[in-house]
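Run log // design_07
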């Protein structure tokens, strides 16, 4: 089955054409004949691939126990490679490890590059002293924040020498040390275990690199001219194009020449996102410091970090111990999630990335120059010149790329086409943005401004830098399609692009285009997520038009979904099978669903997410009899996100991040467990009640009573040393 046929299969499946073959036990028995390298794990929800006939599912699934562990198929095991607090270079293994990349220098030997995304305040505060053997002034600072109220504390303006300012700085420095990137040298022993080799390449690039150690991050591209401004409309940190640290490091990508790319995602939680028309940022005072038992925001406030220097793609060479990262500003500043790298000899370089916010856009950077040898490390220079484009999707399955340059025509989409009816647009002359709610307001905006040069000030070069710094709002202004939170961009072997959109629900910042992002039965909003397949015109990475197909994979099987919610990272294996990990919100996982109706009104899609259990690992064949079916390969520990899957070259190891175990409840105390009720459905739609035992909090990876939960990287392997897939 080729990829076009695969997409046609999926489209038919989610619309009921193929899945209808499962509407009787007889047809189910004939079609479910999987030939897989593993026996699927049995999750809490009946699946079309559970190998249990529909008429038996209610009895088989009436009781279920959730485990606080990484559950894998029979014959598969995992090894913990590193966990929060372990030594790494001259620092430590950070918190909430996300994207992984294993850059091999020899067979089963090389550098494991890791992202460390953010701080989960509940388990981090609970466990900090136990894990790191030092204390922080949490109680004193939390008490001060409580007295200050919900807006938090502006530590930036507190006098130097004041005790509270010093205490806040102590906490935020430690929190930022636990974010950023890391490199760990590894090799595989003859016995099949991975061991650290502790080379001089082992290092951390943290959220405060450069603050006191001189390890500033570098940058390229048009935003450099804005960074050098000392008399702009907004704030200047006085450092020119030197950058302190990286944080919010979520997904990423790996280049054929052996460098690793990291996307700074939710930077807006720590520094001011808003900028003025000249691209300079609002004052650090506009993002105040806040901490309580569940949240830790405004980490850049006390340190005076300049907000426009965060939200970029960072590139490092893991093999170079002196490389502490370069931010490539031609790729735009927004909430980056993943980088799909397309590098072919004789063609321009194309990088794809998404802005993971409700209503965020899909972007493509195309280099000015062409690639000669995809493995040449000089290809990084191609990132210094080119153009950034945003995707405009049409309902007929076509689309185009719109350049984000000063000449781009102002043509926003209408709020009436968006879930939630909200479109944020650049606010002038004040700077920042304004949330537009009506089509009439958009029309007035279109009449007032004609091109992006009317919204951004300075010379043409300065305008280009400011546009890239304000990419999301500039994209809204020129009519880039508002999407359903793009979380991964993965290049298939044929050069086409797969995008995981995790959720079509709306929020205060915007929502997805209802003409594009619909559920399997046309529902809008649709919470459970989509996978899109995008093919460039003539398969050319520099093409300005494309075609797309939508796959509404999330949701319950009885409703046309494949049994998971919120697809996140994607990965192709050697034979073209698609691997996927999902990302449900921690507070929604295993939340009781004793009923599906609130009076005469169905409960929300969000409130049904507890049905799906823990975040998991999925295997989706792309050819043969099982093409288009989703098989459950593994389930993560409590309240964690499974993320960053990456195969070793011999496919005998699947590296995986276990992020934020125990994020909601923290440490599982005295093996605490609750019994909860769930009104489930069989694959044919028959309702039944499931009694589910749910651990409260986590003790993973140590798994002993009252042990602190620690984010960690694992290596998954087969006990017979065979290939994973």
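design_07 sequence
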């Amino acid at each position: 089955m080729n990829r076009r046929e695969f997409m046609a299969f999926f489209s038919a499946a989610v619309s009921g054409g193929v899945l209808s073959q499962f509407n009787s036990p007889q047809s189910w028995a004939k079609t479910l004949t999987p030939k897989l390298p593993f026996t699927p794990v049995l999750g809490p929800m009946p699946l079309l691939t559970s190998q249990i006939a529909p008429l038996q599912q209610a009895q088989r699934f009436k009781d279920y126990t959730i485990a606080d562990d990484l559950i894998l198929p029979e014959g598969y095991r995992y090894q913990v490679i590193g966990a929060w607090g372990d030594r790494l270079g001259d620092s430590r293994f950070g918190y909430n490890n996300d994207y992984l990349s294993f850059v091999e220098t020899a067979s089963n030997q090389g550098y494991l590059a890791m992202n460390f995304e953010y701080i989960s305040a509940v388990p981090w505060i609970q466990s900090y002293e136990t894990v790191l053997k030092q204390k922080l002034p949490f109680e004193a600072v939390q008490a001060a924040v409580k007295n200050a109220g919900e807006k938090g504390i502006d530590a930036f303006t507190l006098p130097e020498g004041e005790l509270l300012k010093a205490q806040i700085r102590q906490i935020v420095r430690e929190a930022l040390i636990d974010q950023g990137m890391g490199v760990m040298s590894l090799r595989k022993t003859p016995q099949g275990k991975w061991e650290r080799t502790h080379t001089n390449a082992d290092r951390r690039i943290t959220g405060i690199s450069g603050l006191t150690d001189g390890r500033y991050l570098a940058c390229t591209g048009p935003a450099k001219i804005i960074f050098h401004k000392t008399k702009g409309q907004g704030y200047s940190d006085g450092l020119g194009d030197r950058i302190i640290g990286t944080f919010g490091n979520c997904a990423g990508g790996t280049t054929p020449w052996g460098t690793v790319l990291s996307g700074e995602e939710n930077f807006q939680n720590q520094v001011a996102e808003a900028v003025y028309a000249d691209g300079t940022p609002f004052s650090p005072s506009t993002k105040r410091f806040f901490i309580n038992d569940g949240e830790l925001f405004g980490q850049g406030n006390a340190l005076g970090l300049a907000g426009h220097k965060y939200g970029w793609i960072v590139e490092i060479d893991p093999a170079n111990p002196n490389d502490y990262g370069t931010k490539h500003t031609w790729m735009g500043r927004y909430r980056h999630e993943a980088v799909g790298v397309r590098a072919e000899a004789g063609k321009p370089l194309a990088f794809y990335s998404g802005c993971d916010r409700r209503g965020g856009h899909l972007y493509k950077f195309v280099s000015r120059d062409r690639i000669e040898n995809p493995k040449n490390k000089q290809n990084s220079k191609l990132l210094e010149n080119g153009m950034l484009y945003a995707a405009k999707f049409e309902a007929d399955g076509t689309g185009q790329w719109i350049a984000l340059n000063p000449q781009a025509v102002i043509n926003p989409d209408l709020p009436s086409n968006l879930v939630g009816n909200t479109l944020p647009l650049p606010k002038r002359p004040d700077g920042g943005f304004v949330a537009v709610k009506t089509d009439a307001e958009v029309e007035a905006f279109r009449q007032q401004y004609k091109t992006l040069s009317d919204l951004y000030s300075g010379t043409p070069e300065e305008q280009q830098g400011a546009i890239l710094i304000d990419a999301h709002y500039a994209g809204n202004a020129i009519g880039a399609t508002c999407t359903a939170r793009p979380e991964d961009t993965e290049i298939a072997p044929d050069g086409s692009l797969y995008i995981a959109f995790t959720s079509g629900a709306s929020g205060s910042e915007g929502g997805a285009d209802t003409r594009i992002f619909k559920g399997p039965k046309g529902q809008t909003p649709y919470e459970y997520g989509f996978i899109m397949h995008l093919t460039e015109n003539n398969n050319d990475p520099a093409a300005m038009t494309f075609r797309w197909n939508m796959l509404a994979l999330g949701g319950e099987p009885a409703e046309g979904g494949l049994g998971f919610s919120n697809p996140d990272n994607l990965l192709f294996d050697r034979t073209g099978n698609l691997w996927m990990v999902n990302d449900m919100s921690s507070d929604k996982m295993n939340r009781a669903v004793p009923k599906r109706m609130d009076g005469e009104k169905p409960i929300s899609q969000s409130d049904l997410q507890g049905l799906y259990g823990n975040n998991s690992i999925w295997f989706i064949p792309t050819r043969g009899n099982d093409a288009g079916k989703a098989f459950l390969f593994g389930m993560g520990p409590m309240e964690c996100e499974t993320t960053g899957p990456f195969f070793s070259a011999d496919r005998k190891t699947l590296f995986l991040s276990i992020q934020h175990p125990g994020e909601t409840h923290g440490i599982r105390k005295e093996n605490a467990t609750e019994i909860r009720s769930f009104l489930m459905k069989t694959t044919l739609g028959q309702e039944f009640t499931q009694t589910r035992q749910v651990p409260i909090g986590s003790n993973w990876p140590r798994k002993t009573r009252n042990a602190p939960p620690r984010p960690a990287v694992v290596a998954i392997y087969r006990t017979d040393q065979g290939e994973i897939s």
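The chain has a mean pLDDT of 94.
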